Amino acid sequence: MEGRYISWQTILACFFLLGQFLWVRADVHYYDFTLKEMNVTKLCVTESILTVNDLFPGPVIRVHKGDILYVNVTNKGDYGITIHWHGVKQPRNPWSDGPVFITQCPILPGSYFTYEVIFSEEEGTLWWHAHSDWTRATVHGAIVILPKEGTTFPFPKPDAEEVIVLGSWYKGNLNAEVNDAMANGSDIPHSRGWLINGELGDFANCSSETTYRWSVNYGKTYLLRIVNAVNDDQLFFAIANHNLTIVGLDAAYIKPIATSYVMISPGQTMDVLLTANRPLGQYYMVSTQFLTESAYMNMDIGSAIIEYTGDYNFSSSPIFPDRLPEAKDVEAAMRFTGLIRSLADEDYPISVPLNVTMKMFIVVSMNYLCRNRTYCDDPTAHKIIASSMNNISWANPTVDVLEAYYGNISGYYTTDFPDRPLVMYNFTAKDKDDDVAITDEATKVKVLNYNESVEIVFQGTDVIGGSGVHPMHMHGYSFYVVGMGQGNFNNETDPLTYNLIDPPKANTFIVPKSGWLAIRFVADNPGVWFWHCHFDRHLSWGMDTVFIVKNGETEETSIRPPPSDMPACIFSKHDISIRKWDDNNAGDDQDYL
Ligand code: C2O
Ligand code: CU
Fold first, then answer.
1. Plastocyanin-like domain: from which residue to which, for each copy (predicted)?
2. C-alpha of residue 403 to centroid of ligand 1, in Å
C-alpha cells in the first residue's frame, strides 16, 4: 500500500515538474472571439459593422515568443468568415492559417471553430484579420509577441508600449457592396477616411469628439507597435516634431532607422521607439495615403493626439507634422523602404539562402479577363477587370486546396502554375499589344519540395495603364528581400546588386511601381500556403496563388493531422464571390486599378 502511495506522489511530482518545464518553454493562451454586428457612428452616420467582442479594432493578443494560442471563434454575424494570423508561420499547421477556400471553408453563422496558433521565431508585432471577402475592414487586431521570458529586446527596454492600428473606413456595408460591385460591375468601394485605433480624428466630419488620445510622460521612451490594417492602400505615417526610430518590421528586428515619417504597406507591422522629449503640449500623429496609381486619390487625413501629462498651458490646437510626404511622393516612400536592413548580429543571426534550387520569375499585372473568351475579339466590347500572376488570374475552388490536397481529392486545382510567364514582353513599356492584357482564370498552384531554396523575382507591369506598387504577402513564411529596382529585371546585372548580408526579413513587401522585387526563402514549412497582393481589390481580381510545400521524410517535417472539427465545405460555385469586376457601368478603368 505504502509503496503505491509513494509512487503516486512521485508521478504527481513528475507531472508538476514537467508542467513547470513546459510552462517556461511555451505558455498556452486561450482567447474567445465572438463575431457580431455592432453600431458605430462615423462621418455623422450610424452604421452596423462586424466586430470581434464588440471592439473596434478588435482585441489585442499578447504572447511571448514560442507560445501557443487557442482562439475559439464563434460566428454570430450574418455571413461565413475565417480568421488569419498574419505573419505567424504556424510550423506544419496550415489547418489554422485561415484564408478562405485555401486552407478552410468558412465558419458559417451560428457555428464556431477553434484555431491553434503556433508561434515560433516571430518576435515583435503582428496582427490577425478576417480572410474571407472584404470583412477584414472591421475584423482585425494586433498581436504583441514579447521576447521569451528571461530574454529582452535588442534595445534599451522601453518605459511603456502603445498599439497603433491604422485602418480605413468605408461607408455602408463594404462586404455587400463589394459583392454587388462584382455582380453588377459597379465601381469598387473606396475608403472614406483613415482610422487610428478606430477613430478618424479631428480632420473628418463629426469625428473630433472621439479622436484617439494617448498621454505620454515627458522623458519616457515608448515602443509603438504599428499595424497597417487598411484594405487597399499604402500609408505615410508621422508624429509632429518627434523622431521615430524603427527597430522592427513584421516581427523581425532591423537595424534602427531614425526618421521623421514611415511608409507602411497594408499587411506590414512596425515596431517604433519614440521618446517624449519635446516641449509639453499636444502633437498630432497622422496617416495619409501614399498613391502610385492613377487611381482614386484620397486626400483624407487620419489623426490622433499625443498629449504630454503635467501642468502646463497649451491653448493652441495640436501641432501638425511638417515633414509628411505628399500622396504621390514615390521618392520619399522608396527612400524610406530602401533603408530597411535586418539587424543580423550575433544574437539575431539570419540565414539567407545562397544556393537557390528553385527560381521563379513572376509577372504581377493588371489585366482584362475574357470569360469564355466572349469579349476578346471585339475591342469595343466591355471587359472585366482582373489581375494576375504569370497571366493566371486565381479562381477560388469550392473545396479548399488544403482539404483537396490532404485528402487526395482531384478536380479542385491543378499543379501547373508556371515558373515564368509564357510570353515575354517589355513589361514596363507604356505602349503594348492588346494581347498581353488578356488573362485567364484558373486554380493553378505551385508545388515545392521540402527544403527547397526558392528565389522569386516579382516583375511589375504597365499593362492597361495599371502600373502601381503591389504589397506581396506570403503565408507560412517570412522571406528575405534581397533586391529591388526600377524597370524590367535584368537577369545578368541585377543579381549582382543583391544584398545577401543583411536583407530585411518580411512577410509583406512592395514590388515597386514599374519595377521588380527579388525575395528568397527556404521551403521548410510543409503545408498549403497562400500568397497574394495585400490590396484587397487586387486579391479579389486574382493576384494570388498557392504554394503546396511537400512533406519531408520524418513526422517532424510533415503536415500535422487535421483537427477533427474543420468547417465543412458545403458550397456550390453559386454561393461564392468568384466573379471579377465587370467594368460595364464603372466608368474609366483608371479610376480603380
Ligand atoms: Cu494579411 Cu492573406 O493576409
Ligand atoms: Cu497589387
1. 36-149, 163-310, 418-552
2. 19
Strands lying side by side in the sheet with 244-249: 193-196, 160-169, 221-228, 269-275, 244-249, 252-259
Q: How far is CA 427 from CA 488, 537, 576, 580, in A?
A: 7, 21, 33, 23
Q: How far apart are CA 504 and CA 270, in angstroms?
A: 12
For strands 112-118 and 68-75, give the pairing. antiparallel
Quote the cell numbers at residue 465: 495603364
The helix/strand/coil state of 589 is: helix
- Amino acid 137: pLDDT: 97
Residue 16, C-alpha cell as written in the block: 508538476
Ligand 1 and 470: CB distance under 6 A: no
What is the reported pLDDT for 254?
A: 98
Is there a cis peptide before residue 57, judged by omega within 30 degrees of 0?
yes
What is the atom index within ligand 1 of the atom nearest the CA of 532? 2
CA 112 from chain centre, in angstroms, equals 24
Burial of 38 from C-beta contacts in 10 A (0-12 / 13-18 / 19+): middle
Looking from the CA of residue 129, the nearest atom of ligand 1 is: 1
Long-range contacts of 558-563 (CB under 8 A, 24+ apart): 558/92, 558/526, 559/92, 559/93, 559/94, 559/406, 559/526, 559/527, 560/92, 560/93, 560/95, 562/95, 562/406, 563/95, 563/96, 563/114, 563/116
Q: What are the residues whose beta carbon lies below 5 Å from ligand 2 (ion)?
A: 470, 533, 535, 538
Residue 129 Cβ inside 6 Å of ligand 1? The answer reads yes
CA dist., res. 567 & res. 401, Å (int) = 14
Determine the distance separating the centroid of ligand 1 and the alpha carbon of 564, expressed in angstroms: 25
Does the Cβ of 537 fall within 6 Å of ligand 1?
no
CA–centroid distance for 540 within its chain: 14
And the C-alpha cell for 10?
A: 512521485
Going along the chain from its start, the domains and CATH numbers come out as: 25-151 (2.60.40.420), 153-340 (2.60.40.420), 358-562 (2.60.40.420)
**Measured from the CB, is residue 92 less than 6 Å from ligand 1?**
no
Q: Which candidate, 579, 538, 81, places its Cα nearest to that of 265?
A: 538
Ligand nearest to the CA of 536: 2
Considering only CA atoms, which residue is closest to atom 3 of ligand 1? 86
Nearest ligand 1 atom, CA 475:
2
- Given a cut of 70, the residues of the chain with pLDDT beneath it are 1-24, 183-187, 295, 371-382, 571-593
Ligand 1 site, residue 512, Cβ cutoff 6 A? no
Using the mean position of ligand 1's atoms as its centre, give its distance from the Cα of residue 570 in Å: 24
Amino acid at the residue 97? D
Distances in Å between the Cα of 576 and the Cα atoms of 33, 200, 202, 294 are 24, 32, 39, 30
**One-letter identity of residue 435:** D
- Distance between Cα 250 and ligand 1 center (Å): 12
Return the pLDDT at 68. 98
Output the furthest CA–CA distance in the chain (Å, rounded).
93
Instruction: Verify whether ligand 1 is closer than 6 Å to residue 87 (CB atom).
Output: no
167: left (phi over 0), alpha (psi -120 to 50) or beta: beta
